Amino acid sequence: MKLKQTLGGGLALMLVLLSAACGGTNSGNTNGGTPDASPTEVASNNGADSSKGLTGEFEIQYFVGGYGDSWWKEVISGFQAANPELKITQSAGPNINDQMRPRWIQGDTPDVVFIDGAGSNERQMIDDGQLMDLTEFLKEAENTDGEKLTDILISQPTAYEGTKNYTLPLVFGSWGLFYDKAFFNEKGWKAPTNWSEFVATNEQVKASGISSLIHTGVYPYYINGGLVDSAIVAGNGGDGSILTQQANLEEGSFSGPAVQKALAQVVELVDKGMIDPGAVSLNHTDAQIQWLQHKAAFIPSGLWLENEMSKDIPEGFEFGFIPSVAQGAGENNIVIPYTNTIAIAEKAKNVEAAKAFVQYAFTKANAIRWAELTGALMNIKADLTNTSASEVVKEAMAFFNSDTTTVAPVAVLNADVEKAKQDATIALTTGRIKAEEWMQRLEAAAAKVRK
Amino acid sequence: MMLTKQNPAARLVTYILLLLWTIAVVYPMVWTLFGALKDNPQFMQKQPWALPEFPLLWQNFTYVWERYGFQSYFANSILVTVGSILLSSILAATTAYVLARFAIKGGQVLYYLYLSAMMIPMILGLIPLFFLLNDMGLINSIPGLILVYTASALPFGIFVLVSFFKTLPKELEEAAYIDGAGYARTFWSVMLPLARSGLISVGIMNGLTIWNEYIMGSVFVNKPELYTLPVGLAVMQNEMQYRTEWGPLFAGLLLSIVPVLIIYIIFQRQIAEGVTAGAVK
Amino acid sequence: MTQSARRRTFFIIFLLPTFLFFCLFTLYPIVKGVQISFFDWSGGTKEMDFIGLDNYKQLLRDPIVGTAVGNDYFLVVGKVIGIMLLATFFAVAVTRLNVWGKNVYRVLFFIPNVISVVVIGVLWRYVYNPNLGFLNSFLSLFTSERVQTAWLGEPHTAMMSLLWPSIWAGIGFYMILLVAAILSIPGELYEAADLDGASQWRQFLSVTLPLMWEQMKVSILHIVMTTLNGSFILVWIMTEGGPDNSTQVMGSYLYQMGFRQYHMGYAATIGVLILVLSLLTTIILQRVLKRETIEMA
């Protein structure tokens, strides 16, 4: 989850959700057991003798955040069972990105890495030459059920430098605005399908004495994902390529007419006093709790929301999800997707095992387990109807499959530009800067990185 | 003997200020306790100062106790703190003794070098230190943390102990030499015992810093069973805020504070004396 | 062994281990850190590009550095004034003013010092929470409309809101230092002052203050150093330097740049800035405070 990116209140150094048993124990077990498998045997055994499976050592690094680690443990132990000779090491935890940093610098990397959490940025890893070019592998690769990987993915791997793939999206979801259907029915408010309806609903909400939009001011990428980005795409006539242009830092991509139109919409909300005044100092939990308490009508967030807040949902609360509101009447909805990716290290010592693990993990069965264990979506087209994935996730699936919906590409901004964007957006939503300055700041940040 | 007349208005103001500050430090503790006994609806719908409703949720305490390794957090913190204090005391006392009692060439330079190290922002050396520990195989180990903390405690220890050794009378030292004791012997059996209160004060002040140190602890150790208390707490806090488990969060915070408070109250006199000893040069 | 050889051996045994330890674990990382400041380095590869003084040039142009330095000194000045005033007052109260229950205060006021900064951050974030928080709920008792101030979210209140927890957490420690200093003042001085009929205030000015000044000086320097080097932890926990970098201090900006935006070289440059400013501030302060003692004497 993107959300976990900077999540906690704590010195985000260490971040989140570590379940008591995580990481260490498992690797301890496997480490202790098989001292005899030497690397030389690996090469000779590989492929030739499939009954014995892979051998040698295999290390996987994964951030333990909002998704917990139970899926990982399950999948890894399955992979272990299929390859009993393989010595698997798990490097996991809420602070794993910072802790593994020196090893990445020295080139002593794990084989597979799940890129998530504070201190991780796939674009940076690619720039630093840490990740293996997977373009060829992904053209052919099939999972262990014999399905071609790229056929069953919901979101295709992001193309870098035009055509190259370095990462494979493992988690898929969508940003958007959330509201309480029951509450809206009770008050007679209408869930908006375009900008003028959104503003009209907001007027009604405001008249009733509560804030219309609350957001996670400490982590402004929520409102960027849930409102600003879809507005930019809508402003671009529903053409999502503008986000890719921005990610590629093209000159003018942060100040063109589409952006101007989107920012004008944000400013309209600010001018009409529709953004909760306290939101600027709220982290995600604070904001979400207050939204659940009906202190505000809408909140921008991601699809993990219902699962994340499951314990605090008041009686009778009904999650509603709107992917975008900035479009004009009759125009398509915009879905701004987010992904968390998995990758193979450029300096992986056991590439064979790394690829085999990817092929093992990306199955429909594992996707269903992911939905059940984390409540979120794995990036695989699997039938979730009978699973415990949250209702709102299923509702969102309906949007993805609708032909009045445009799914924007996943675009990962350079870390500096991303920070500048978050800063500028929070300043804009508190009325401290004007739209022009937002654009100036972003163009300047992009120009600086381009150099 | 306080014979001085005191202005009654000034007395009143004094008491009011003392009372206000007492509230400011005690109330958060009480409030944390109340919070630890509440469930989420009470947090969201009641005033923040509302008393917890019955039944009191004592299970919040057992819940955090079972989910997080408080025993090991405490054990690690105690180990790391005591280890670093002992090691840094030895290293600081020996150097401080020489710098304070002998006029050696370069002594001043050395003294100011150590002194200026107190102003070094440790975060600047964080990454290189990381590599250093990594190369030495000391990442993810209690001894590694002890070495790092010892180094961070040295400059302050030397600073205080130098001024402390300087105040000791020369006669004692001379008497020891006349008795035929060597330098080391004199230091060990005569001077060091005399400097005990200085050592205590250094130990306490460095100990407080190390006990609460968070950044290095969180970067140099990534195994839950090796977490120190601040690191464990930070992980717990993130996790619980994320799951909005406020009651258990406050229970956990309280669990981390109470043992320290009890120790503080028991050793209050010694701690005050220790700090005093350092203060009164 | 000759006397001088024994003497030399003794010096080596007593000085060398400490010095080597210091070099390895303090000096070396710092020198390395300073070295990094001359490179363009993401912190993710072995490749480092030497860029000379470019990071330093960028530092001088970076408006956020200006904000951060300003915020740091706001905290330094605020903490020195706040802590010294209150700690001195409380120290005098529990030693010279014959108040009831003085030992109790000495215990109670120290409580915040044994609490981890992580806990302090959580408690105070809750105090400042705009809707559920203690402060706004309390203020709302006196207003017709609910107070919704986002204390940590508005540039003109955020730094102030960060200052209070820092003062709160610091008082006890410095109070104990000052108590110690006052108790070491010979009682005869006060008796003499009593005989002269000097008021409490007069006694404070003419006896207590000059004789505890040395300790106050140490305390002030200690506050300055710990604030410039360590204040960022609380800042990071409470605001992460936001909104829009308005509460950034040098330490948090260093962290943001190095670990979040992958400019380890630039982060090291900020570290050097902290080091230089700490040294300068301490030296200047030492001069200033020394002069004042002379004036008072």
Automatic annotation (TrEMBL), chain A:
InterPro entries: Bact_solute-bd_prot1 (IPR050490), SBP (IPR006059), SBP_1_CS (IPR006061)
Predominant location: other
Bilayer-spanning residue ranges: none
GO process terms (BP): transmembrane transport
First and last residue of the signal peptide: 1-20
A single GO cellular-component term on record: cell envelope
Localization (cell): Cell envelope
Gene3D superfamilies found in the cross-reference section: Periplasmic binding protein-like II (3.40.190.10)
Family, similarity comment: Belongs to the bacterial solute-binding protein 1 family.
Protein name in UniProt: N-acetylglucosamine transport system substrate-binding protein
Classification of source organism: Bacteria, Bacillati, Bacillota, Bacilli, Bacillales
Automatic annotation (TrEMBL), chain B:
ABC transmembrane type-1 domain segment(s): 74-267
Listed GO CC annotations: plasma membrane
Keyword Disulfide bond annotated: no
Compartments where located: Cell membrane
Keywords, in A-Z order: Cell membrane, Membrane, Transmembrane, Transmembrane helix, Transport
GO biological process, one term: transmembrane transport
Cell membrane keyword on record: yes
InterPro entries, per database record: MetI-like, MetI-like_sf
Pfam family, one: BPD_transp_1
Annotated transmembrane regions: 12-34, 73-99, 111-133, 145-165, 246-267
Membrane-topology descriptor: Multi-pass membrane protein
Family from the record: Belongs to the binding-protein-dependent transport system permease family.
Protein name per its UniProtKB record: N-acetylglucosamine transport system permease protein
Organism: Paenibacillus endophyticus
UniProtKB/TrEMBL annotation, chain C:
Location in or out of the cell: Cell membrane
Domain of life of the source: Bacteria
Membrane topology designation: Multi-pass membrane protein
Keyword Transit peptide carried by entry: no
UniProt KW keywords: Cell membrane, Membrane, Transmembrane, Transmembrane helix, Transport
CDD domains cross-referenced by the UniProt entry: TM_PBP2
Domain ABC transmembrane type-1: 69-285
Keyword Oxidoreductase: no
GO cellular component labels: plasma membrane
Gene3D superfamilies, per the entry: MetI-like
BP-aspect Gene Ontology terms: transmembrane transport
Regions that span the bilayer: 12-31, 73-95, 107-127, 162-183, 218-238, 264-285
Family named by the database record: Belongs to the binding-protein-dependent transport system permease family.
UniProt protein name: N-acetylglucosamine transport system permease protein
The organism of origin for this protein: Paenibacillus endophyticus
